[in-house]
Design a protein that fits this description.
- The protein has an 8-stranded mixed sheet, with helices on both faces.
- It has 12 helices and 13 strands.
- The longest helix has 18 residues, at 189-206.
- 40% of the residues are buried.
- It has a domain at 228-323.
- The chain is of the alpha/beta class.
- 33% of the residues lie in helices and 23% in strands.
- It is globular.
């Protein structure tokens, strides 16, 4: 079997609060191979976006990737790279589609100038060829009148159009890994479906590995073959999408699925909810961090943090897993 493109081992991202270290991402492990689409899901505050930023060397000021963490890209550990070394990778081999398409583009430059800059920087194109390639990329994203759109500024675009532009820009240099963070969260259902299909098609054509960060399980079911469920800075369950969604082992995964419209078992059809909220990392409860919200929790859960269990086609962290 070929080596994975990306291997993340024991990833820890930490900060300091009141003089003491606080881990926001705790011992995260992930693997991605060429052409694989993996969905990273969980509630807001679980650490999904921070994970994506860490993989791109873009951890915000005041946070750091701690010793012992490994982010191995094509056999090379990226932890500790200098910024000038990261710049050779970002936008070329690794690409990120950030959250909120309406603010991710530079408001002072036209779409065309931003796309040409990437092509000239990473692929050495001259202005004429860069303009032609940028227009072709927009057409592939289903954007009509691409030549006219190249002359527009971001404020002249709709949310769906901005999202398509961001995806086209991310794919310009044909990256081997694409991290897409909430690419459909601000869009209507019809536009969501079209963008997901276009994104999946582009990744298939170029065998690009896709890490799709989202809170929408329907998006993962549509676009990914593997899912990793994140809670409080850890992956609590991981495996192929169909068996994980059909027979979750972790109560948190089951709670997320029960809250999806159309899957509720409540007699009057009301959506189920998970009581409470994701704990603040600085005040994480002892034992299993999900224990205060878990209907299956026992005293043991509040005293011992669960180890990672490997079972057939999946991994999970739970002392009392679902049958």
């Amino acid at each position: 079997m070929a080596e994975p493109l990306l291997q993340v081992e024991r990833l820890v991202v930490a900060t300091r609060v009141a003089g003491r270290p606080v881990e926001l991402i705790r011992g995260l492990d992930l693997e991605l191979s060429a052409g694989q689409a993996l969905g990273l899901v969980g509630e807001s505050g679980a650490g999904k976006s921070l994970t994506g930023l860490a993989l791109m060397g873009l951890v915000p000021a005041g946070l750091s990737v701690t010793g012992g963490s490994r982010i191995v890209w094509r056999g090379r550990d990226l932890v500790g790279l200098k910024e000038r070394q990261w710049r050779r990778l970002r936008g070329a081999e690794l690409a990120l589609i950030p959250q909120n398409p309406m603010t991710a583009l530079n408001p002072t430059r036209t779409v065309g100038s931003q796309m040409r800059y990437l092509l000239r920087l990473h692929r050495g194109r001259d202005r004429r060829s860069a303009t032609a390639e940028a227009a072709t990329a927009l057409v592939r994203m289903g954007i009509p009148e691409a030549d006219r759109l190249l002359g527009l500024y971001p404020h002249q675009l709709s949310g769906g159009m901005s999202q398509r532009v961001l995806i086209a820009m991310a794919m310009l240099s044909q990256p081997e890994l694409l991290i897409a963070d909430e690419v459909t969260s601000a869009l209507d259902v019809t536009t969501q479906a079209a963008i997901l299909d276009q994104l999946a098609g582009l990744c298939r054509e170029s065998a690009t590995a896709l890490l799709l960060i989202t809170h929408d399980l329907g998006v993962v079911a549509r676009s990914c073959r593997t899912v990793a469920v994140m809670y409080c800075g850890q992956i609590v369950e991981q495996g192929p999408v169909e068996p994980v969604f059909a027979r979750p082992r972790h109560p948190y995964t089951a709670g997320l699925l029960a809250a999806v419209p159309g899957r509720t078992d409540h007699p009057d059809g009301r959506l189920q909810t998970i009581a409470g909220q994701v704990p603040d990392s600085a005040h994480r409860p002892p034992g299993c961090p999900f224990a205060p919200r878990c209907p299956r929790a026992t005293r043991r859960c509040t005293e011992h943090e669960p180890d990672r269990v490997a079972e057939q086609d999946r991994l999970f962290r739970c002392i009392h897993p679902l049958d």
